[in-house]
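so my prof wants the structure for this chain in the tokens format not the other one, which i didnt know existed until like an hour ago. anyway here's the sequence
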Amino acid sequence: MQTPYFLIDEKKLLENLGILRDVATRAGCKILLAQKAYSIYQTYPLLAKYLAGTTASGLFEAKLGREYFPGEVHVFSPAYRAEEITQLLPICDHILFNTPGQVKKYASMCQKAGVSIGLRVNPECSTQSGHTIYDPCAPFSRLGTTIANFEDSILPYLNGLHFHTLCEQNSDDLETTVHAFLQKFGKYAAKMQWLNLGGGHHITRDDYDRARLIRIIQELSEQFNAQIYLEPGEAIVYYAGTLHTRVLDTFQNGVNLAILDTSAACHMPDVLEMPYRPPLRNGALPHEKPYTYRLCGPTCLAGDIIGEYSFDAPLREGDELIFEDMALYTMVKTNTFNGMPLPSICIEHIDGRMETLRTFSYEDFRARL
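here's what i got, hopefully its the right format
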């Protein structure tokens, strides 16, 4: 198969979904797919057998969820245009607002349409380290209403409260956040029909404390007699996808360099944004194995560098490399900078059958401009 291409592993996907369904059943909560992390709608019929619906970050994701994923559709945006609300009302079950001002502006429209209204709150409790770009509780955050900015006048409009503060974290950080949330917003939570604990829960990771998560959810549900929602993204597709690439050329300039046919900037931009070093099958840390290479993309961006890895043997033109954990925040973020072709999207079914879900051409590049 021509590289580069993303490959979704249906077997691993089903393993993750089974864990999530078990958690939802035991905890009595509802789990939604966060489409911002993974939007491969061709797999939505499978996901819908295990999850309660989707959550969206705007109009287009909400439309995708309603069109392809049976179940609830929730949406949150830091701010909405009036024309977006008009289109969201017929397709959404929950609309979450970022500020009291947005609630007051659109609440009557939502109530007339029978749409549940939520407010995202900011418990001002940072549990992350080293990734400020992903911390909604960082100083001066634009995401969520702090207790100082909460307005009691909007309470008659609200059906639920939402917070999202985690990023690939364990349930101990959730417990810390819930404690801060209850300290600040507990008196308001008592008036709500539902509470949404957002995403960033690494539920399907081997060392994740799922017993603690279930206890937290059960305690909240019993205390407030409220429906509890989770909206993970990465947990659903954790290690359920790979990115396959080939070496185009190797040379030496102080270090060994290898140019691949995949790009960090275009095909896995979180490598540069976060930044992070993506796991590579059979690749080790620099100098851990005999041959160390800096793996680079083919674009004109000088910093299009995936990272340094070591190998048992020298890399040769045509060698295939496989990056792991590439289902989340990759396909949804790819771009065509430099006119780079987008990787095809494929799936390996549980019976071993390979299927190509999507290929991309020059016309796809042209149509974006």
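also thought this was worth mentioning. Residues 171-189 form the longest helix (19 residues).
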